[in-house]
Q: What sequence folds into this?
C-alpha cells in the first residue's frame, strides 16, 4: 500500500511512524490537489492494482483522472456527510455522481450510506458495507483516573449521563436536556456531562439555565483525546440523540457509540441515518425518536434505574465491538471487498 496525501503541519514526523510509503503533494484548491494527486498516482512504482479514493473530492476526481491513464479500477469510500456538501451546486453534484458511477465499487460505513451510494447510480452488488471501527485496547481507564476526574468535576454518587460530540443542532443535546427535566422524580441525583465544543454552546448553556439545570449539566468544552476513555468509564450511560435537520448532514454511523461500547457502557441513540448499525436496539443500547424528549427520558430511566439492564447492555456492547467492530474486522471486510471486486493478491495468485 502507498498513501497519497497533501502536505500538512508535522506530516514528516507522522509519516516516519507508519509502515508504508506516503507521497505528499502540495495543498491548495480542490482542483489543483486532484491534479497533483492524479500525477503522483500515475508515477507510482511499482504500478498499483487499483486506487482507493477515501472521499469523492479531491481524491475521487484524482482517481478518475489517474485510472483513465493507467487503465486501472478504483474504489470510492462513503460516509454520509459528503452527500449534502454539493450545496445545490449542479456542477459539484454532476462531478460527484460521475466519480461514484465510474467506480468499480464503493466501500461504506453503514447501510444508510449504502442506500445513498445506490441513489447516486451504483447497483447494490457494487456497494460493500465495511462499517467503521475502534481499537478496543485504546479505551482502558484506571479506577484512580476515574476517581480523580469525578473529584475535579464535583461528582460524588450521582448517576452520570455523557454526550461526546460537536455542539451543533443535529447532535440533539438540547433534547437530552429537555428529557432531564422529566427525570427529576425518577433519578433525582443526576449529572449530564457535555463533552465537546461548537457554535451552539452559548445557546445550550442558556437553555440549561432556563430549564433550571445549572447544577445538573456540566459543559467541559473540548478535552484531550487521551482523556476520553476516562470520561466514558465515568458515565453510567452514553447518549447522543442525533436527528435529521434540513441542510445538515444525517449521522452516517456514530463512532462515539462504539467508543462507549468499548468501555462497556450502554448507549442511547436517535433513530436516524446509520445509527441503527452502531446501536442495535435491545442489544447494546436503546434507540429513540430524537424529536421526542419524553421517549428519551423513558429510555434514560430504564437504563439508570435498572442496574441489571445497564450491565447487560454494556457487556453485550463490549462483546459486539470485539466480535464485529475492531479495526481488524474492518480491515478483513475491506480485503474481502477487494477480492469480490476482482482486485488484489487473491486475483494475482489465481491468474
A:
Amino acid at each position: 500500500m502507498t498513501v497519497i496525501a497533501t502536505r500538512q503541519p508535522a506530516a514528516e514526523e507522522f509519516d516516519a511512524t507508519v509502515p508504508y510509503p506516503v507521497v505528499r503533494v502540495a495543498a491548495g484548491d480542490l482542483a489543483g490537489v486532484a491534479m497533483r494527486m492524479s500525477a503522483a498516482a500515475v508515477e507510482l512504482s511499482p504500478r498499483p492494482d487499483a486506487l482507493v479514493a477515501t472521499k469523492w473530492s479531491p481524491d475521487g476526481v484524482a482517481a478518475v483522472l489517474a485510472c483513465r491513464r493507467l487503465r486501472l479500477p478504483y474504489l470510492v469510500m462513503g460516509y454520509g456527510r459528503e452527500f449534502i456538501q454539493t450545496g445545490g451546486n449542479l456542477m459539484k453534484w454532476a462531478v460527484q455522481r460521475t466519480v461514484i458511477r465510474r467506480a468499480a465499487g464503493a466501500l461504506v460505513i453503514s447501510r444508510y450510506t449504502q442506500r445513498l451510494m445506490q441513489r447516486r447510480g451504483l447497483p447494490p452488488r457494487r456497494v460493500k458495507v465495511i462499517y467503521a471501527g475502534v481499537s478496543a485496547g485504546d479505551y482502558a481507564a484506571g479506577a484512580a483516573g476515574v476517581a480523580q476526574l469525578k473529584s475535579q468535576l464535583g461528582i460524588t454518587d450521582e448517576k452520570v449521563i455523557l454526550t461526546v460530540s460537536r455542539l451543533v443542532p443535529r447532535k440533539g443535546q438540547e433534547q437530552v436536556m429537555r428529557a432531564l427535566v422529566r427525570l427529576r422524580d425518577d433519578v433525582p441525583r443526576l449529572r449530564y456531562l457535555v463533552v465537546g465544543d461548537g457554535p451552539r454552546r452559548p445557546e445550550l448553556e442558556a437553555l440549561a439555565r432556563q430549564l433550571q439545570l445549572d447544577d445538573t449539566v456540566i459543559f467541559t468544552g473540548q478535552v484531550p483525546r487521551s482523556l476520553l476513555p476516562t470520561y466514558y468509564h465515568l458515565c453510567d450511560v452514553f447518549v447522543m440523540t442525533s436527528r435529521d435537520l434540513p441542510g445538515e448532514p444525517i449521522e452516517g454511523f456514530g463512532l462515539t457509540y462504539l467508543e462507549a461500547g468499548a468501555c462497556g457502557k450502554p448507549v442511547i441513540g436517535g433513530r436516524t441515518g446509520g445509527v441503527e448499525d452502531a446501536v442495535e436496539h435491545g442489544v447494546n443500547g436503546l434507540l429513540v425518536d430524537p424529536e421526542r424528549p419524553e421517549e428519551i427520558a423513558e429510555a434514560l430511566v430504564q437504563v439508570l434505574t435498572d442496574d441489571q439492564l445497564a450491565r447487560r447492555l454494556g457487556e453485550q456492547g463490549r462483546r459486539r465491538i470485539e466480535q464485529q467492530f475492531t479495526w481488524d474486522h474492518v480491515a478483513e471486510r475491506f480485503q474481502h471487498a477487494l477480492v469480490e471486486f476482482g482486485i488484489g493478491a487473491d486475483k494475482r495468485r489465481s491468474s
The first strand starts at residue 3 and ends at 6. The chain is about 45% helix and 15% strand. Residues 109 and 132 are 5 Å apart (CA to CA). The longest helix spans residues 307-324.
